[in-house]
Amino acid sequence: MPDSRGAEPPDTTDLDRLRSVASGCHGCPLYQDATQTVFGEGTAGAKVLVVGEQPGDKEDLAGEPFVGPAGKLLDRAFAEAGFDRQALYVTNAVKHFKFKREGKRRIHQKPGRTEVVACRPWLLAELRAVRPDLVLLLGATAAQSLLGPKFRLTAHRGEPVEAPDDVAELVPSAVATVHPSAVLRAPDRDDAYAAFVADLKAAGKLLK
Predict the structure, then answer these.
(1) CA pair distance 125, 170, nearest whole angstrom
(2) Which end of the chain is more exposed for a tag (fewer CB within 10 A), N or C?
(3) How many CB atoms sit inside 10 A of residue 145's CB?
(4) Cα-flanking dihedrals φ and ψ of residue 159, to 5°?
(5) CATH number for position 175
(6) Distance from C-alpha of 185 to C-alpha of 23, rounded to nearest angstrom
(7) Closest by alpha carbon to 55, among 67, 73, 45?
(8) 51: helix, coil or strand?
(9) Residue 124: which domain range?
(10) Is the pTM of this model over 0.70?
(11) In Å, how far are 115, 128, 132, 133, 202 from 8, measured between CA atoms?
C-alpha cells in the first residue's frame, strides 16, 4: 500500500516502488484537487531523462506524462531530432496538476517554488534510479528545479549547462530548452518549433 504520508521517497532505486509510494504523496496541497499523482515513465538505465513542468489536464486524467497536445508535439520533435521516445525516461518537476476552474474547464497554473521544492526529492529519486547520461529540461520551472531559482532559460537555452554541486553526481550533462506548450502558444509556431528541434538536436550531440 502507498505510504499515506508520502512526503519523502523511500530509500530505493526501484522505480515501481517509488511510483507506488508517490501515488500517496501529500507533500504539498496540490494532491487535494488533482486526480492522481503523475509519476515518470521509462526504464532504469535510460540514457536521457526528460523533465517537464507538471502534468496538464490530459496527463492528470490519464496518469501518464506528456500525453496531451504538448506531448504530441514533443513526440514529433523528438523523432525529428533523432530521439526514440520509447528509450527515454520522461517525468515532471511537479507530479500533480495545478489548476484553477473556469466553468467546466481546468486551466493550468504555474507551480510555485514551494511546490517545486516539495516535489524535488521525487525528481532526485528518479535520477538516482535511472542514472542518465543527459538530462533534458523543458521550460524554466523544470530547469530551475535542478539548476536553482537563479537559472535563466533565456540566457542558456540549448547549450550545455553545469549542474550545482548538490546534484552534479546525478546530472552529468544537462541542456535546457522551452517547454513544448510554449511552442504551441508561440505567435509563429513554425519558427518556434524549428528552434525547439534545433535545441533537441544540440542536446543529442552530447550523447555522441
Answers:
(1) 10
(2) C
(3) 26
(4) -120, 155
(5) 3.40.470.10
(6) 31
(7) 67
(8) strand
(9) 15-205
(10) yes
(11) 13, 14, 22, 25, 35
**Ranges of residues in the chain whose predicted pLDDT is under 50:** 1-4
What nine digits make up the cell of 151? 537559472
| Sign of the C-alpha dihedral computed for residues 92, 96, 98 and 101 taken in this order | positive
Q: What mean pLDDT, rounded, does the chain reach?
A: 94
Within-domain flag for 184:
yes
* Cell numbers found for residue 143: 530547469
4 found inside a domain: no
Distances (CA, A) of 151 to 36, 80, 188: 30, 28, 26
Work out how many domains the chain is built from and give that number.
Answer: 1
Asked whether residue 8 is assigned to any structural domain, the reply reads no
Using DSSP's 3-state secondary structure scheme, residue 95 falls into coil
In a domain, 7, yes or no: no
| 103-160 tens-digit pLDDT | 999 999 999 999 999 999 999 999 999 999 999 999 999 999 999 999 999 999 999 9
Residue 6 has what pLDDT?
A: 57
Query: What pLDDT does residue 5 have?
Result: 52
